[in-house]
User: Fold this.
Amino acid sequence: MLSLILVSSTSLHSQNSNQEAYILKYKDIAIRQMEQFGIPASIILAQGLLESGAGNSYLATKANNHFGIKCHDWKGATIRHDDDAKNECFRKYNSAEESFMDHSMFLRYRSRYSSLFNLDIKDYRGWAHGLKAAGYATNPDYAPLLIGIIEKYSLYLYDNPQATLPDSPDEVLALNLYIPENGSVLYHVSLQREILSTNGVPCIVATGMESYSSIAKEFSLFRKELLRFNDLSNEQPVESGTIIYLSRKKEQAMRETPIHIASGKETLRDISQKYAVRLKSLLKYNNIRQDHIIAEGTTIKLRNK
Assistant:
C-alpha cells in the first residue's frame, strides 16, 4: 500500500527559515575560510547545512561538529555517535568556528583532496563531485545533494568575495551581479580598481590587458620595484587573473597556514604568490636551491616555526 506523506507549507517554511538562518550566521566565516584556504564558500556552507542539519544535528549541538568529521588522528576532545557503524568516534570542538577552521584544514592538508585545489574557486559542481570521489561521504547522492543546496539558496554568489552581497538570503536569490564589459567582477561599477589583500600584503588581480610597467605606473611604483615585490627579475606577459603584489611579501605565512601540499603543477614561486610569502624564504625553509616545479604531494613549509 502506497502511503502519502503530506508536508504543510508551514513546515516547509520553517525548514527553509532554519537553513536561511544558518546561512546568515555562518556566511562570513565561510568566506574567510575561502579566502584563507581556497575552498569555495558555497561548498563550505552547503556541507555545513547538510552535515549538521542546519546546525540542529546531535554532533552540531553536542560537539560543535558541523561537518561530521571523525576522529582519525585527532588529539583533542571527542564524542561517540552512531554513523556508518555504532559508537563511532567524532571530533568535538569548543565552538562552531573552530569546526569550520578544522574542516578547511582537513581538506587542505590531506593528499586525497589535493586535486580539488586545482579546480576554479567558482566550480562548485566540480568540488561537489570531487569531494564524493575522494570519499568524503558514503552517500551516493552526496554531490547532487550539495549542488541542490547551493543552487536553491544561490550560495555560489558567496564564491565572489569582492561582490557586495545583501545580508538576507531572500535578497541574494533575487540579486543580479553587475559585471563590467571586461567580464571581471573584481572592479567596482565605477571601474576603479579594487585593492585586495593576502597575508596582509596589498595586491590586485590583473585583467590580462596590461603589463608590469603599466601597473607600476598606475600605482606610482618603479617597474623594477614591482617586479621585485613579485619575485621576478624581468618583465613578462601578464595573464588575466594573475595576482600582483604592490608591496613586499611577508617572510612567512599566517599561523593558520603553516604548510602547502603541492599539486604537481606549480613552482615554488607560484606557491610564494599564492600565500604572499617571499620566494627567498620558501627556498630557505624547504632547503631548496632554486625555483622549479614541485612534485605532487610534497609538503612545502610556509613558516619558519
